[in-house]
Design goal:
- The structure holds three protein chains of three kinds.
- By secondary structure, chain A is an all-alpha fold.
- Helix content of chain A is 76%, strand content 2%.
- Chain A has a domain at 273-494.
- Chain A is built from 21 helices and two strands.
- In chain A, strands 1-2 form a two-stranded antiparallel ribbon.
- Chain B has a single domain, classed as Helix Hairpins, CATH 1.10.287.
- Chain B has helices at residues 2-31, 35-57, 84-115, 120-129.
- Chain C is mainly alpha-helical.
- Chain C is 63% helix and 4% strand.
- Chain C has helices at residues 2-20, 32-35, 38-49, 54-62, 64-85, 134-156, 165-182, 185-191, 194-217, 229-232, 236-267, and strands spanning 96-100, 106-109, 122-124.
- In chain C, strand 1 and strand 2 (106-109) form a beta hairpin.
- In chain C, helix 3 crosses helix 4, helix 4 (54-62) crosses helix 11 and helix 6 (134-156) packs antiparallel against helix 7 (165-182).
- Chain C starts with a helix and ends in a 9-residue tail after the last helix.
- The chains are: A mainly alpha, B mainly alpha, C mainly alpha.
- The A-B interface holds A 134, 138, 141, 144-145, 148-149, 152, 157, 159-160, 162-163, 166-167, 170-171, 174, 177-178, 181, 184-185, 190 and B 26, 29, 35, 38-39, 42, 45-46, 49, 52-53, 56, 85-86, 89, 92-93, 96, 99-100, 103-104, 106-108, 110-111, 114-115, 123, 127.
């Protein structure tokens, strides 16, 4: 049965999404349970696949029984297995936190919400697992469409932000499709492994070069690398909090995974890292993204909006680290995919709790939060320390690798940008700590005398608190297990 | 010389047509301020890619990829039928673009319900007022 | 802004043009795309799956996994539009709807309420209301069944001629949309409720994924229709052919239902009152 595990990772959530939709018209009670069971099953299956990969190396699964270039294959190596684990763990944690929020925001459409989020996760898992360049596009669109719908149902200007995201996202996906078309035209195949065998002879041609470039630009739009980031802040700020932990922490990370996959597997490292000019340009772009993201984050006045700009800076970390082109840089970049997914999840869950209790997450509303929402704030502090990069948390370790890579490659501007952004993060988060810990309420009376219930400040519901605490704990556990992660898994990628 | 030019045009004009279409779509998405016009631009953009793939699949003096009846006597000649793969891929791409269009229109309806306009400038001025 | 855009577009365009110089010639039978994988499909499709239409064979068998998600994309779109647009209003048995002609506002008059009496300003758009146009009514009554019959033909004949689940499903959906346009939305919703179309949409994709899962449970891999041979009581090649048909029926069902669902929600902005 173990050889069927890769298929189960995809089939279970797909069937569940259909079942939930049908059930939401018949009996709504079961939707949450099924969603839970689905994510748990898929997580178990991806753990199984991970074990298989650790023992036997690459796992390949032929869909329809056709051999790879003819049919589509799943191809799971250490990198995808890791990303799959991240996807389903994040989905499961976010689900526990979102139950109450879903009931509050979408009383009539809870089933549809669950079905869409399951489809969203299916799409992400499919992107990760597939070994076919065109199939990746189809699943990219599944993720995108469900993402637009989830974002469009948020508050304030969400529909407009969703529409802008849709237009930008479609341009990105279309560029990727066109790039794949160029590669197909020159080779006649869509399978990633076969492409990597046929392409080396064609590396000098303009068409292949341009195809690679188109794929990258498409992915840069999708992952919101700095000059192409304009869709992200609004979309992520206004989206419903029930979905924010899921979408914000996974979308950009999976896109970075795709970039790594295309650059290392479809093209060889010799090609991707052989072009010094491309690498220099991309590392500079990443530096600009980090600096600009950090500075723009300083100008924001609410937690979620500040986090969106931090995400833009973090994308810069990962892109820059990868395009340093040396072992430490790539390791740091991959490690940061995992860590950043966990950090973003933790912080977005906390921001969601703020919004749930206070109806807003503006800094000025957070006064006294340490006193009245202690557990949520513990999670927030751990997440913040991790983003800043304080040792026992995981953020430190990936940053450590990235800095090591930057020094080895002689990219001192990248190292400087990393340190600069850490310093800015210190300012960003300690400002919030100060408000939450010391500041008096707007009326002038000190926190201790205010009536918490009147302002609605009290600890978030149990599900949210527990999920944020688990996410926060995972940050420390991930940090402590960095060594195992690098030596058992990431070492095999590059 | 003249002949070379003509052969080159004959060999490439499909690709040029796709580039022109794509640029029209891109231009519409960048410049147009009306959201529905942007969506139309997006659709043109996607259609151009479909044209590109179909052009890749074309083969001279070949017919549609359906095996003719009564071929059993001879071996099937690959040159007699055009490349089916791009057609399959584009069937998928068409479906995707229809789905995207549907969601885009749904979002546009929500935007219209909220601001009572689809002009980006008007929406922006409404947002700034608040 | 305009000049910047024109410059960007021209720059991109010239880059692409520069690139086309190295493209294989259009229609060149020796182009790599035509030489590498496609000869296998052309020469083996009929042998492998007993389907003369190679596009159908590649679509539903060789790349069946792609197509399953293609159906899922359409399904996701239907779900997304429902999620974004649908607004639920309480249903009343004896409700009467009147449209105020100058403003287009629809009034909902409860049982026992005062009915507007100025016919020049108010128009009844009740569920029983249909445009009283003999020509449109008769034409549609004649056309719709033929459209539906043709759609079924397109689905069933996808093995031998251009066609298949997507095309047939869209035509089938179009016949319902024609009904909605020629009468009104509410009378169509009464024939095929939103609930039915939503369940049908998921059932359609479920047929596809379920067929694949059945292959897996019968001991082969996902979507390997050859494994269905013992169930369908045929050889493995014919089982593939039948498998493709089953899958295409699922696709047709899903696409039809989603098209109708999309039309319901988009044409009435989610209110399901009046439609276009």
């Amino acid at each position: 049965m173990t050889h069927q595990l890769p298929a189960l990772i995809i089939i279970v959530p797909l069937m569940a999404a259909l079942l939930i939709t049908a059930l939401s018209w018949i009996n709504r009670k079961w939707c949450f349970t099924i969603t839970c069971a689905t994510f748990a099953l898929s997580l178990a299956a991806s753990v199984g696949v991970m074990i298989e990969v650790l023992e036997n190396g690459v796992v390949s699964y032929r869909l329809g029984g056709w051999r790879p270039p003819i049919g589509i294959e799943f191809r799971i190596d250490h990198l995808n297995a890791l990303v799959l684990l991240v996807i389903f763990s994040v989905a499961l944690l976010n689900l526990f936190a979102s139950r109450i929020k879903v009931q509050a925001h979408f009383p009539n459409k809870a089933g549809t919400f669950y079905a869409l989020s399951v489809l969203f996760v299916t799409g992400l898992a499919g992107i990760t697992i597939t070994g076919d360049a065109f199939n990746l596009y189809v699943l990219l669109e599944i993720t995108a469409l469900t993402g637009y719908a989830l974002i469009g149902m948020g508050q304030e200007h969400a529909p407009l932000a969703g529409l802008n995201y849709l237009i930008m996202g479609t341009i990105g996906a279309s560029f990727y499709l066109l790039g794949v078309g160029f590669l197909y035209m020159m080779t006649g195949t869509l399978n990633m492994m076969e492409l990597s065998k046929l392409l080396p002879e064609l590396y000098d041609t303009r068409v292949v070069m341009f195809g690679f470039f188109l794929c990258l630009v498409g992915l840069f739009i999708k992952m919101a690398l700095f000059p192409l980031h304009s869709w992200l802040p609004n979309a992520y700020t206004y989206m419903p909090t029930a979905a924010s932990g899921l979408i914000a922490s996974l979308t950009t990370k999976v896109m970075i995974y795709v970039m790594i996959r295309i650059s290392l597997l479809v093209f060889t490292p010799a090609f991707s890292f052989g072009n010094a000019m491309l690498m220099t340009v991309l590392v500079w772009l990443a530096v600009i993204a980090i600096v600009a993201g950090s500075i723009l984050a300083l100008a924001q006045k609410s937690v979620t909006r500040m986090l969106t700009f931090i995400i833009i800076a973090e994308v810069g970390y990962m892109v820059g680290g990868f395009w340093l082109g040396n072992r430490d840089g790539v390791t740091g970049s991959i490690l940061h995919i995992v860590n950043d997914a966990a950090m973003t999840l933790c912080l977005f869950l906390v921001a969601g709790s703020f919004r749930f209790r206070l109806d807003s997450d503006r800094f000025s509303e957070l006064s006294g939060s340490f006193r009245h929402m202690p557990y949520t704030m513990i999670a927030f502090v751990v997440g913040a320390l991790s983003i800043i990069g304080v040792p026992p948390t995981c953020g430190f370790f990936s940053k450590w690798y990235l800095i090591k890579g930057g020094l080895a490659a002689g990219s001192y501007h990248f190292v400087a940008a990393l340190i600069f952004s850490s310093l800015i993060n210190v300012i960003l988060f300690f400002r919030i700590f100060e408000i939450g810990f010391f500041q008096t309420l707007p009326h002038g009376e000190p926190v201790s005398q205010a009536i918490p219930a009147a302002r609605g400040i009290r600890e978030a519901p149990r599900g949210m608190v527990i999920s944020s605490l688990i996410a926060a704990t995972s940050l420390i556990i991930l940090g402590l297990s960095t060594n195992i992660l690098v030596s058992r898994v990431i070492r095999f990628v590059f | 010389m003249m002949n070379d030019l003509i052969t080159m045009i004959a060999a490439k004009y499909n690709y040029w047509a796709f580039i022109v279409l794509m640029m029209i779509g891109l231009y519409a998405m960048i410049v147009k301020k009306n959201l529905v016009k942007k969506i139309i631009g997006m659709n043109i953009f996607q259609t151009s890619i479909i044209l590109f793939y179909i052009s890749v699949g074309a083969k001279e003096s070949a017919t549609i990829p359906i095996i003719a009846h009564g071929h059993q006597e001879g071996v099937i000649q690959a040159t007699a039928y055009i490349n089916p793969l791009p057609h399959v891929l584009m069937l998928t791409a068409i479906v995707v673009s229809v789905a995207t269009l549907g969601v885009a229109l749904a979002l546009a309806i929500r935007v219209y319900n909220q601001y009572r306009t689809l002009e980006e400038d008007d929406i922006q001025s409404q947002i700034n007022q608040i | 802004m305009k000049t910047v855009a024109i410059l960007t577009v021209c720059l991109c365009g010239s880059l692409f043009l520069f690139c086309t110089m190295e493209f294989p010639n259009w229609g060149d039978p020796a182009a790599p795309a035509s030489m590498h994988l496609s000869p296998y499909f052309i020469q083996n499709a009929e042998k492998d799956a007993a389907v003369p239409n190679i596009v159908t064979a590649v679509l539903a068998d060789y790349r069946g996994y792609d197509t399953m998600f293609e159906t899922a994309v359409i399904f996701a779109a239907g779900l997304a539009c429902f999620f974004l647009l649908r607004t639920f209003t309480r249903k009343r048995r004896n409700e009467r709807l009147f449209r105020h002609i100058p403003t287009g506002i629809v009034l909902n008059i409860k049982a026992g309420g005062k009915i507007p009496d100025d016919p020049s300003k108010f128009e009844r758009i009740d569920s029983h209301w249909t445009p009283n146009d003999l020509i449109i009514k008769t034409t549609c009554r004649l056309i719709i069944p033929s459209i539906q019959l043709f759609a079924l033909y397109v689905i069933a004949h996808g093995h031998h001629s251009p066609g298949g689940g997507f095309q047939g499903g869209v035509i089938l959906g179009a016949s319902f949309i024609l009904l909605a346009i020629s009468t009104d939305l509410r009378s169509t919703v009464r024939r095929l409720s939103e609930r039915t179309s939503a369940i049908m949409a998921s059932a359609g994709v479920l047929i596809y994924a379920g067929t694949g899962l059945l292959c897996l449970l019968l001991g082969s891999v996902f979507l390997d229709y050859g494994a269905l041979a013992p169930v369908l009581r045929s050889g493995s090649v014919m089982a593939r052919s039948h498998g493709i048909l089953i899958v295409e029926i699922g696709v047709g069902l899903a696409v039809m239902a989603v098209m109708i669902w999309l039309y319901y929600n988009i044409s009435s902005a989610g209110k399901h009152d009046e439609g276009l």
